[in-house]
Amino acid sequence: MVADSVPPHQAPRRLSLAAWLRDARVLNILGQIVFAIILIAAVSAIWTSILTSLQAKNLTPNTNFLADRAGFDISERPAWYSSSSTYAEAFRVGVENSLRIIGLGLVLTTIIGILGGIFLLSSNWLLRSITRVIVELLRNTPLLVQLIGWYFVVMLSLPLFQDALTFPQESVWVLAWRFALYLALIVAAVVVTRLAWFTVKRRAYLWAGLLGALITVEGLFVVVPRQFGSLQLTSVALWSVLLGSALVWWVCWRYAQASTRWRGIGGAIGAIVGSLLFFVGLLPTAAFARFEVYPAMILSKRGFVIPEFLPSTRFGWWLAIVISGLIAAAIAWIVLARITEQTGRPTQHVLWSVVIAVSVAILGWVAVSLPPPPATMALPQKDSTTLDMTVEEAISAGVWTRDAEQQYSRWPLLYVPPVQKISPAGIISGLASGTQITPEYMALLLGLVIYTAAFVAEIVRAGILAVPNGQLEASRALGLSTSQTLSLIILPQALRIIIPPLGNQYLNLSKNSSLAIAVAYADLVFVTQTIMNQSGQSVTGITMIMLTYLAISLVLAWFVNLVNRRFRIVTR
Amino acid sequence: MTTMAEPHSQEPTETTLLKQESPARPPPLLAVGPLAWMRKNLFNSLLDSIVTVVSVILIVSVLISLAVWAVGEANWFVVNFNWRLLILGRYPAESEWRVTLLAVITAFTIGMALAVWSRVSRSAVAVIALIVVFLLVTPPIIYALTTLSPSYVAAGNTELSFGASKVTPQPQLGFLAKAGETITVKVADRFATDDMTLNTLYGFTDKAAGLIANAASSRLSTAAQLAELNQKLENDLLTTGQRTRLNAQLAKLTVPAPITEMFSVNKPAVQVRLLRGSTLEALAGSILTTGTPSLSVTVPADGWYILEKILVDKQDTGSTILEVTGIEPIIERNFSRAGDLDATGNATAAERVLQYIRVTDNYLTEALRPTPDGKNVPMAILIDNNYRGSHTFNDYLRLFVAPFFEILNVSFLAFALAGTIGYWFARLIDRFIPPIGGIHRASARATTWMLIVLPMLMFILAYGIGGVLPLTDTRRWGGLLLTIMLTVVSVIASFPLGVLLALGRQSELPVIKAASTVYIEFVRGVPLITVLFMAQLLLPLVNPALAGLPNVFRAMVAITLFNAAYLAENIRGGLQAVPPGQEEAAKALGLSNFDIVMSITLPQALRAILPALVGMVISLFKDTSLVAIVGLLDLTGMAQNIVSQTEFIGLRRETLLVITLMYFGFSYAIAAVARRIEESGSGVVRLRQI
Fold first, then answer.
1. With a CB-CB cutoff of 8 Å, which residues 378-397 of chain A face chain B?
2. Which of A49, A507, B315, B469 has the highest Cβ tally under 10 A?
3. Which of A129, A148, A200 to mutate to test the interface with B (most CBs of B within 10 A)?
């Protein structure tokens, strides 16, 4: 109607300033310009005043100080760092320490969180309730308090290094012949229970009987004699075992199908021969092997010590073989999966690729360690000359060091168990070898992981609950097994809901790792704070911390987005 | 069925079956009732049963060990004595009424809110009443029915030394007593016979008596260790290294002579006198040896008394342990009651007060310690006089539970009363004032206003206001008070900024959008602790005027700036949830942009994100603990500060447990309120209901 009265192309365009200023578009642009000017002015005013105050203290922000000597030691440091390293190197150590916590923390959080989520949905009321209580307690108390608790209460109440908890305990293990017999019996039972006649219930009876027999034998012939001196064989025991074996033999013969009868016979004969041998009296306590066991893990106030695995010169070869095996496994996976896709014929692609990867790794290990080490080796002597000598000579000369072992070992990887340093008086004083995980690292890791896992558990629970029940029923109706339902129906749909909030929790974990300062773990913030205190470069220091965390956050967010895209519903 | 049945034999049976009314049998045992529930929920399968059994064993063992620790081992003095520090920090005592008033007003408002938006069930009222009565009634009952286990003090001339510890028994011991209390002293002949009986000694001991008893148990444990080592060495399954180490350990161990003989315990006779602290007159005295009846004195007045215990034979090298009832440990507290802090944050010397408090019942005196020989008499001070052995349940109740309830009960009663009054006030104003505008209940209006005013009131009351209430020194803020202040102030202050940022990020104007986005994403990408550091370090540099800003306010600024970014994201989510038709309709009606935001979109958005906002408040409440790292004494910082004092060193578990429960209680309460709001239907649903 308006167009009828005043045609637009005929409208007089008067560009008066007032009209121009009333135009919403112009106003928007002007407003933004004003906003930008005010913002820039405010920021630059703040910046200038900070600069002036710092200049007054002779602390103009710069990055030159990074090349100066740091002069402080870091409790958690790689071998290359010393107090004569530069500030930049100290900062790098801090960043690496933070990344060590975040990396392992993310993995453990995911595992424990998923486990917690499943526990929260368990059909077992008790398990569900306990998990609920723990999750609520963790979610409703500050992480800082939890960290203090983990460090000052849990870690520092561990035993002293002298009375450390060790696993396995240092002791002598005796493998008696009867263990071989037990193994044979178990194998026989496995074979026998594969017979068609063995329903689930009967199989359970057989296993229960076997277990009962093992416990009886152990009790009668090993534990009791050890406590009360030797105990003579009673005919009742002998005949009950013989009769039991005969019973098994008869049962197998009577009920086994003709085609599998020989298996039953084999099992029964094995059981009888085993029993007879046992009662000859040689087997019960006769030692098959006797060896000393040393701790692989040591837990104490000073932290957790685990073995070291040192690569030898042959490690590269083995690594190459393992990688090629992995590639072969990947190819097998792809090819078999494609066959399934094209023909619909099921192939065991997971099984085959695992078998290929594992067997190539094992064969590679054997092949690489097959050539014997040279008879004599060029070893550096104490007077820094080199001399060709055999291992025995080197050991007697005291030059068979770990480096030499690493160089000439026939194994690709050297297993170095943790060894406690023991004084001649028999007092444990320190650590001779092994990888030490400090109590600070453990406390921070445990605190972060368990706190974040409580949130993840809740997310996983919500994600699984969000999958409509109809999906579950439909998959059951189609005849899918429980594991198939879980892996093909529930999880893909649940993951779609779980991943975005899970990513948020990952970001939280990485940012919360800055609380390391509460347990004195030398992370990014802790180290940079020392740097700032020493150099006075607080502005630069804080900027460095913030930029690092921003970078970590960005990388994590990018990664989560990538995964999210993979699981998103594909729409047209 | 029919094909299988033989017709001639089956027919008559079937007819009888059909005619008979089958008797109503009870359902199978495992089909209904608790057994069925257990079968379904606890023992559904083999794995389920194993899980159940393992969990039950775990829970029971954890609970038992926790109870054993809490009753027997834990030293809850640290909580009882620092309760005020944990709640109020070093808030000036003269201004304490302000915080009390604040708490009462809060309870009143909670009562009003309950009356308006919720119904208080009878059982809830009963539970609260029961708690109040329980708190009030229990301490007198405990004091009336139980007596503290006797304390033990040693008398002797010579220095006792065992291992690295050396103690000379004190000839005199100062203690506090109230009029009418009876003090009895006798030789502890129950423990004289041998080391085994000495080892069982429990109760408060002075250093010397503790040393004797500990020496006995140390000797016994050495003997046990020796036997264990010998047994281990008999085992042939030992590595060479192990054998060497065990032999080395064995070589180091020697079992000392029996302690009862070494210190000739309870052999010497003791001259015991009870002196009045103020006048040093002897109230009673006698010579005690094993078997003599106990010396018993009823105290004439409140105040200091001295127990004097000197061996009759000045040359005797033995020692005697005396069993005393009525002497309880004391703590010395040195603090400033009021006044300002000096530049370093310490109280000025002139304001210092010295208090002595009896730990078992909080009996407090400011009377100075008696000085019989020109110097302060040694007293049964807490750090010197430790409770030996595990507390008996009786002692646990008397030492920890009754005093703790006494601390709590009056304030709890006050809050309960204020809440009740608030509840009835809200119901009464509805009866007398008609609904405003015909819809809104007067009580709802009043409560809403109270809730809006409360945070500001909180700040004004706690901090003070120029001219009316004197300002308090923020360095004295601490404990739960500081935690709550930080949370409340930050939440309120971050709201305007958060709304602006959310609108900015939603805006179509690129510059504003970019600025908001950069701010939000930057803040969300860095940890709170760095923002706190930045506020501590950089705020003073921005402007000389800001350099004088107290630490607490710097932390508040940092938390506010940090929280605003998260709040903005929440609000943005809410804004996106508002249907676009709302805004279009508002535009069609000709509302201005400002009116659209303030009256149409923002209210709906805020209602939609109420649960998320509560979650944010909870996480902020927990995050305020980070200020402990920058040196503020909030609940966490105060706990850390307390356990670093000499008297309370090593009592971190107790303190941490208590503050954890406090944090948990508050967070869980906020979450419960949120659930309540969610269930009642926030936002649109509620509007429709009205």
1. none
2. A507
3. A148
| DSSP class of B362 | T
Taking an 8 Å cut-off on Cβ atoms, the answer to whether A145 and B526 are in contact is no
CB atoms within 10 A of CB A139: 20
DSSP letters, A442-467, are HHHHHHHHHHHHHHHHHHHHHHHHTS
What global pTM score does this model have? 0.86
**Per-residue model confidence as pLDDT tens digits over B159-209:** 888 888 898 888 888 889 998 889 999 998 887 778 888 888 888 888 889
d(CA A51, CA B351): 42
Question: Residues of B numbered 27-46 whose beta carbons fall under 8 angstroms of chain A's beta carbons: which are they?
Answer: 41-42, 44
What radius of gyration do chain A's Cα atoms show?
35
Question: Backbone dihedral region of A281: left (phi > 0), alpha (psi from -120 to 50 degrees) or beta?
Answer: left
Amino acid at A410: R
Question: How wide is the angle at C-alpha B647 spanned by C-alphas B389 and B346, nearest 5°?
Answer: 170
User: How far apart, in whole angstroms, are the C-alpha atoms of residue A277 and residue A270?
Assistant: 10
Please name the member of A130, A153, A546 whose beta carbon is closest to the beta carbon of B55.
A130
User: How far does the CA of residue A412 sit from the closest CA of chain B (Å)?
Assistant: 29
Place of tokens 């009377």: B367
Q: Which DSSP letter does residue B651 get?
A: -
Q: Is the CB of residue B72 less than 8 Å from the CB of residue B396?
A: yes
Please, are residues A513 and A449 in contact by the beta-carbon 8 Å criterion? no
Report residue B272: phi and psi, to 5°: -110, 135
The residue among B249, B251, B263, B252 whose CA lies nearest residue B210 is: B263
Place of tokens 């121009």: A20
Looking at the complex, report in whole angstroms how far the Cα of residue A513 sits from the nearest Cα belonging to chain B: 9
Chain-wide mean pLDDT for chain B?
A: 86
Res. B486: pLDDT tops 90: yes
Q: Where are the alpha helices (DSSP H) in A140-231?
A: 143-148, 177-193, 200-218, 224-228
Give CA separation, A64 vs A61, A90, A479, A532, A549, in Å: 9, 15, 69, 13, 22
pLDDT recorded at residue A265: 61
Give mean pLDDT in consecutive 10-residue pieces for chain A, a chain of 572 residues: 49 68 83 92 91 85 88 87 91 95 96 94 91 95 96 91 84 77 75 68 66 64 55 53 62 58 60 59 64 87 89 91 96 91 84 93 92 81 79 80 82 85 72 86 96 96 92 91 84 89 94 94 94 89 94 94 81 54
Q: Can you tell me the distance from the alpha carbon of B252 to that of A418, in angstroms, rounded to the nearest whole number? A: 26
What is the SS3 assignment for B159?
Answer: coil
The amino acid occupying position B616 is: M
Query: A532-563: per-residue pLDDT in tens?
Result: 999 888 889 999 999 999 999 999 999 999 98
Give the ipTM of the model, two decimals please. Answer: 0.89
